[in-house]
Amino acid sequence: MQLTGWLAGRGVTVLVVRGFHLFNENINHMGGGQAMTPEEQDLVMGLAFVPGVGRTRTIDEVLAHFGEPDGGALALRLLRDAMERRDADDVEMALILHAAADASAKEFLEPLTELFPAEWHREHEDIVSMLGKLRSPRTMPTLVLATHWVPEHLDWDENRALAVKAIWALGAIPGEEARDALKGLRDAEDEIIRENAVNQLARRGEL
Length: 207
Fold this sequence. Notes:
With 207 residues, this protein is mainly α. Helix content is 63%, strand content 0%. It has helices at 2-8, 13-29, 38-45, 59-66, 71-85, 88-100, 109-115, 124-134, 140-148, 161-171, 176-185, 191-204. Helix 5 runs antiparallel to helix 6 and helix 8 (124-134) runs parallel beside helix 10. The longest helix has 17 residues, at 13-29.
């Protein structure tokens, strides 16, 4: 504080500090450390497909608003920012944008595996679906976790949809590791998990 005041008295740093403040404001407007506004969330929600209605917004409209030409890059940036702030709503917005942009999940693997075990969001099923598209052994720890861990917001689901999605994703991964993971699930206490594991092993010809 003393140094700033000393320089300000000589007319040197005041403009630099103010310029830095404005620069930060521009970054925040682009999603760097600041929650999306309700208007921005409504804009992104318009990308979600609603049966009988369709989509009310286009990906180009959203990209133009955020000044970003690449939907996948924008979704990844918004996702990382939402994770830093633990903002469940903005995580949802980022994943909606990712789907609408038809972006690859490859660059999302690291943040998604980090995000999955967190209880503060509601996107566990979508994360498993995204990881399943990769068919990568690198997703296995998260997928195996999803077969037996139930987030609090899904505790009501007796059909174990999250676990079933994870088992199907495991079934699509080639190699012995995925096979062994599925075989380990044949002895699960939950009948739904046992049946789906057996079905995947049968589909792979590895019973």
